[in-house]
Inverse folding.
């Protein structure tokens, strides 16, 4: 059935590239009015062209409290309320525990944990009864992959946060669920600070660990997000959907 989100207002943080961009487009196809946020001037400009007629693109730092407040005030003024919130914005910083700096560790938690916490806090008064919140975590929360201590811990914190939020918001009629992608073709490996050679090695290693022998596609993750955002998952809250080609399940 098409138009699963007809008449809904949806906000996607980190929606100017990768999974967020794919999800914004799918939400629009399914009938939602969509707002996306981003921080990088280059991707913001590209997204404004790519999403013309599809979504409003708003410059907003997903970990800055003042900017988050302005974002949700804008949503309230322009759209009245929200029906769907996809907290997708996040970063990866790779490094062994012995080598990673405190600044890098703090940055990961500022963006990946503090940011979603602040966003949901600001969103609560604007979420209509029957709203759906989806958080983008990661299978890294379930693994002990070397070099991902900060990233994996931040995503495990996000998974835990979703459970508590689901409990607290249930009486308001708001569902909170998690999508946990496996390795996905979004360019995030290349953005993690690795050299070209190291990034290629990581990609090859990951593919070898995935039963389907490939990385996922952003559109495949977006379809899982759509399920959690729509009434198709109306009796689900506090749940996690893993989309990883069998990497952690087979």
């Amino acid at each position: 059935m098409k138009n699963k989100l007809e008449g809904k207002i949806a906000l996607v943080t980190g929606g100017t590239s990768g999974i967020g961009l794919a999800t914004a487009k799918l939400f629009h196809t399914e009938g939602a009015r969509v707002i996306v946020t981003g921080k990088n001037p280059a991707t913001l400009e590209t997204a404004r062209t790519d999403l013309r007629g599809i979504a409003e693109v708003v410059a907003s730092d997903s970990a800055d409290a003042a900017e988050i407040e302005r974002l949700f005030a804008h949503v309230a003024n322009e759209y009245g309320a929200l029906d769907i919130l996809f907290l997708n914005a996040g970063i990866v910083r790779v490094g062994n525990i012995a080598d990673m700096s405190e600044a890098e560790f703090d940055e990961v938690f500022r963006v990946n944990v503090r940011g979603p916490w602040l966003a949901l806090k600001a969103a609560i008064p604007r979420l209509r009864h029957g709203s759906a919140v989806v958080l983008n975590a990661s299978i890294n929360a379930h693994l002990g992959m070397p070099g991902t201590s900060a990233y994996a811990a931040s995503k495990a914190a996000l998974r835990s946060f979703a459970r508590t939020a689901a409990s607290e918001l249930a009486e308001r009629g708001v569902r909170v669920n998690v999508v946990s992608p496996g390795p996905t073709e979004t360019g995030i490996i290349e953005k993690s600070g690795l050299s070209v050679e190291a990034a290629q090695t990581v990609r090859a290693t990951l593919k070898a660990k995935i039963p389907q022998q490939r990385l996922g596609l952003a559109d495949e993750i977006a379809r899982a997000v759509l399920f959690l955002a729509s009434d198709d998952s109306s009796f689900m809250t506090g749940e996690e959907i893993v989309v990883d080609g069998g990497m952690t399940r087979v």
